[in-house]
Amino acid sequence: MAIDSIKDKAAIVGIGVVDFSTDIGRTEWYTACQAIKLAAEEAGVNIDDIDGMVKSVDDGPDPTYTGKGLGIDNLLYHSENHWGTSAMMNAVHAVAGGLCNYCVYYQTAHRASGPEKCISDFLVAREFRDDSLDMVRYDYFSPFGLIGEPGYVAMMYRRYMHETGIKPEQLGWVPIVASENAARNTNAIFFDKSITIDDYMQSKLIADPIRELDCAPKVDGSIAIVITTPERAKALKQEPVIINSVASGYALEGQNYTSYTRDVITDLPEMENMAKELYRVGGMGPKDIKVAMLDDTFAPYVPMQLEALGFCGKGEAPAFIEGGDKIRVGGQLPVNPDGGEIGQGRFITTRIVEAVRQIRGTSTNQVANTDTVLVASGAGGPADGMICRKE
Amino acid sequence: MVKLIEGIPIMRPYIDLDNQGYWDAVKNHKLVLQYCTKCNRFIHPPRPMCPTCRSQDTMEWKESSGKGILYSYVMFTSPKMAYPAYELPYAVVLVELEEGVRIVTNTHEIEPDEVQIGLPVEVMFEDLPDGQTVYRFKKREA
Amino acid sequence: MSVEYNADQKIPHPAMWGVLYKSSTPFWDGVKEKRVMLQRCKSCGYWLNPPRPMCPKCRSQESEWVAAKGTGKIYSWVTFNESPHSAFKTPYEAVLVELDEGPRIVSNVVGINSDELEIGMPVEVTFEDVAEDLTLPKFKKVG
Q1: In this model, does residue A134 exceed pLDDT 80?
Q2: What proportion of chain A, given as a percentage, has pLDDT over 70?
Q3: Tens digit of pLDDT for each residue in A244-253?
């Protein structure tokens, strides 16, 4: 148990979103600068006042490049974090701890149009890092053809089917509701019309039991988020979104997407540990959460997270998602009203953007009276998350 | 004075959408620099945003006079640190162009003992057998 | 079914990051001698799977390698209908086998049709030379 000194000590005051595309026609360096500029403008923060930068190591140019592009004169704080949206924790700690005043968290990744449009350093770095993450996979999985994330998740999901009895007719509601939500989101380029259960059942079983529609498609995008203290936020343009708590979670025998050696491989203990800390620091519980922004890079993670985060009991998630009513806007717990990553493309910081819009009341798919949103990332472990709230 | 050793390729630039104009010009034996028409300033190396006005659509390519002075240099004399494609010793120099920006380059027909800070130099181009065009700097009258 | 390979494509070999960490070499050396080698903590007996330099239970760094019996049960599996790698002809299965000793390892099946596969099915190891320089431990029906 850590101390809870970060509770309500930081706020999101601006978001910058470069329109998603399957071929954005720019370098990652270009769109990183573009998103930060948009976010600063939206917040009403002068770029010269930005003195902190954080990002995930995987996505986008490092602060040396973005700082150079933006003409930043000094950075009091800069860091890169590994997993999911865990760089958000760095930003919150930096701002709450007084290491910097205005911190930008940016994510830039052009996964759809491909590497040739990135600059080489980033690419080399990304390839290298993938290799090091995959140490165990390359030694023990690849020779047998267990290659790629859909396959890794499928191995775990078959076991989840076996243990919970979940049927494709139930899991299908995750992508169906995602597509319905995405259909209303102007930045979601993948679904201009929603899919039905028949579409889902006909979707190709690429890594049986995982279907093509269970996977978030690749996309080009760039997002930046400005974080400062609630006090400084008062002088800025937007209604601040208070960060009630941030936390991360790890668990014994964890291995990104492939924790096959634990006794039970169908729980998400990283998420459970993360949630415990998140609720403790924030002084909240699952019942206080109005909207859940869950990691849906692969559909099976959604029912598993609903259980791990305490939104329903163990074994109850398949029934909870069936038919979609409970997770739609207007339901008991709206999940990813922006369409999530399945509906918009694989891009983790979309969850933070939608959380901000829901609290501000400006979502394309607004849930009435949203005052608290939970954001979770890293279902494949390690996990991280955030609860944010209205001021 | 840079002499290439046959059979060892030199490293190629990684060309992307931000620097393509620069390398296309080199191919045509021209040295161009990024120029912000709003701030009236040259920028190097190429990048996606003017660091002064933060505009992303005011930048164009402007041909450099190709003239400058030697601002600093490194003399590679040992194979331990040198890139194997070049005969030792060789100089890597930082040239400050008349436009005010500095670029990293090699020298052409300048002996090691002539490489000195302040030496007036100008650009020249060479087409290599592997199809690549490189720019180097030679002495000029001050 | 058994995995069929495209003869002109190189099957992914173990990356042997063991060169760096010396953790996987004993496993693959064992495979060459047709044995499934498992790493176990010498101090508390915890299975170190995948192999690693420290026991996460008692934090001892003394370990030993023991040969598994080679029998186990199907714990889970994936059928690849879209190949993630050019060496593998689709469809094929990757399986997770729970060895009788406890540890689970990723492998393939030999001579078991996909519609026969089920969780809990007893299997035993068999060794297949898939390339001149690569032998893989795979699993077939018991008996």
Answers
A1: no
A2: 93
A3: 999 999 999 8
Domains of chain A plus CATH, in order, are: 10-132+221-233 (3.40.47.10), 136-214+242-390 (3.40.47.10)
In this prediction, does ipTM exceed 0.90?
Answer: no
Q: Which of A72, A87, A79, A74 is nearest to A36 (CA)?
A: A72
Stated pTM of the model: 0.90
Residue in A27, A34, A71 nearest the CB of B18 = A27
Q: How far is CA A197 from CA A17, A73, A190, A323, A330, in A?
A: 31, 54, 17, 9, 20
Mean pLDDT of A273-282: 96
Q: Does residue A263 belong to the interface with chain C, where contact is any CB pair within 8 Å?
A: no
pLDDT at B130: 86
Q: Does C45 reach chain A within 8 Å, measured CB to CB? A: no
- Say yes or no for a CB contact (<8 Å) between A140 and C80: no
Interface size between A and C, measured as CB pairs under 8 A? 119
For A202, what's the count of Cα atoms within 13 Å in the CB-facing half-sphere? 5
pLDDT in tens, A152-190: 999 999 999 999 999 999 999 999 999 999 998 887 877
**d(Cα A38, Cα A55) in Å, to the nearest integer?**
17
Q: Which of residues 31-60 of B touch A (CB under 8 A)?
A: 47-52, 54, 56
pLDDT digits (tens, 9 = 90+) for B11-36: 888 888 899 999 999 999 999 999 99
Residue B131, pLDDT > 70, answer yes
* Residue among A298, A126, A113 nearest A218 (CA): A113
The answer to whether A30 and B18 are in contact (CB under 8 A) is yes
Domains of chain B: 15-63 (no CATH), 65-142 (2.40.50.840)
Number of H helices, E strands in chain B: 1, 8
Contact check, Cβ <8 Å, C87/A145 = yes
A81, A56 Cβ separation under 8 angstroms: yes
Neighbours of chain B (3+ CB pairs under 8 A): A
Of A86, A36, A34, the residue nearest A56 (C-alpha): A86
- Domain coordinates in residue numbering, chain C: 18-141
Answer whether B99's CB lies under 8 Å from B65's CB: yes
What rounded mean pLDDT belongs to chain A? 91
Closest chain A residue to the Cα of C16, Cα to Cα:
A139
C32: left (phi over 0), alpha (psi -120 to 50) or beta: alpha
Number of Cβ within 10 Å of residue C26's Cβ equals 17
Helices A269-282 and A301-308 cross at an angle (nearest 10°) of 40
Q: Is A133 helix (H, G, I), strand (E, B) or coil?
A: helix
H/E segment holding residue B90: strand B90-97
Closest residue on chain A to B14 (Cα): A120
Q: Residue C13 carries which DSSP code? A: P
